[in-house]
Amino acid sequence: MRNPIEAHNRVKDFDWEPSYVEKTNWYPTKYKIPAKTKDPFRHLVRDYLSMEEEKDNRQYGSMEDALARGQASSKAEPRWMEIMKAVLPIINFGEYAAMKSTGQLIETIANAELRQGYLAQMLDEVRHTHQEAYLTRYFAKHASDPEGFAQGFRLRGTNLFNRAGRAAFETFFVGDPIEGALNLQVVAETAYTNPIFVALTEIAASNGDQVTPSVFLSIQSDESRHMANGYSTLAAVVSNPDNLPALQLDFDRAFWRQHAFIDPFVAAVWDYFQTNRTTCYLEKWREWIDVDWIGSYIERLAPFGLKVPSGYEAARERVPWLGHTAAMVAYGAWPLQFWRFDPLTAKDMEWFETKYPGWHGHYGNFWEEYRRRCDPRNGELALSLFPSLPPLCRVCQMPCVFPRIDISTCRIKEFAGKRHAFCSASCELFFDQEPHRYLGYTNYYELFDGYDLADFIVENGLLRADGKTLIAQPWLNQERMWTIDDIRAMRYEIRDPLRTQ
After folding, report:
1. For residues 112 and 272, what is the distance between their CA atoms, to the nearest angstrom?
2. Which residues are catalytic?
């Protein structure tokens, strides 16, 4: 059969349930999906595997040959390389969650065309987890300061930001599989993978990191197919008017859950860990999210019954400040992390004021005081700049300080005999709709409330090989690094701000 389209259609005709397979309903969905739709993938698995093998050969070959011999990683800007210790384990968990999501969709959706796309995407996600784990290993071997690259995967459950990332990406596979597809394919991949895997490569390259672009661009070449999967899933759902009420509610929640973590996290990475500066995150957000995703994609679905997410206008108002507030919390809480920070310079602060007018008035004093507290000989922790650590949102697990501390939309209320914090009206609304979804997720303070900071550091393996020096540091100065003795002298207690006594 010479016609590949005809061959592809013939292969899909062989979609059946073998008699020896016990029919299960492990992942039920409330949505009604038609049995036949357009195929979003249009590849035979054999051709797909050959294509991916060729990409892997190019990527791994360059990493082990030219880039390794040229010691590319050791020449990258330290400020940028440090944040990769945090970025890679969080993104890697997202890939793992995506793999689970597409596996559930294959089990749930009785539609050969859609399942073909989901199968290919599941294989893609397995490949991506391997690529990012390998990149982490590569940096651990070749970076100028490898300490911290091995910690991120292990600390997924005990790091403040890793836990928030998990809470966001677990939406890919917890609950209705179609809602998982909305979180994964329609929002996270279609809206946010371009800022992460395409635009971040520009920052990496401009800061001397030639390795990350080779991996990220290879990953993004798969994401375009995943976006097609999302569009085909949406098209199948909106084809039945009975699905529309549930679809809008799930879509509203999916957008906000991804925005609540991805925007502050990526904005802080983007704007605060560049040395050789390029564009700011706000500029790219307006291009990729506001114009492309909303304007060229979501708004065009209105005739079919799907509207722009209800929280979108609030998100657009928050974005100019989210990253700065997240960075302030992350830098202030540096002893809780597993990477080194680099204080802003006068040149950095001038750039921020240019890109974000009014920035200095809101954040300048913090950074000037932060620089002074970097030296342990001054005997002060940057954590002490906050009256207390901010409460964590019961829904998204992010600190309740956004968009800025002075205009925080934090709200606190009691439910089932316990106080809960919410970062926004949207997170509070989602909790009120289905509180059982969020009450079982223990937040960071509930794990470590009452811990002495030094004990937390030791218990979580945040010391270097000498058993004394911290992996995390508030600056890049290697002549005077903080030790566990410096931390013990501070007598700082991790305290849940919602604790009543």
Report:
1. 46
2. 95, 125, 128, 189, 223, 226
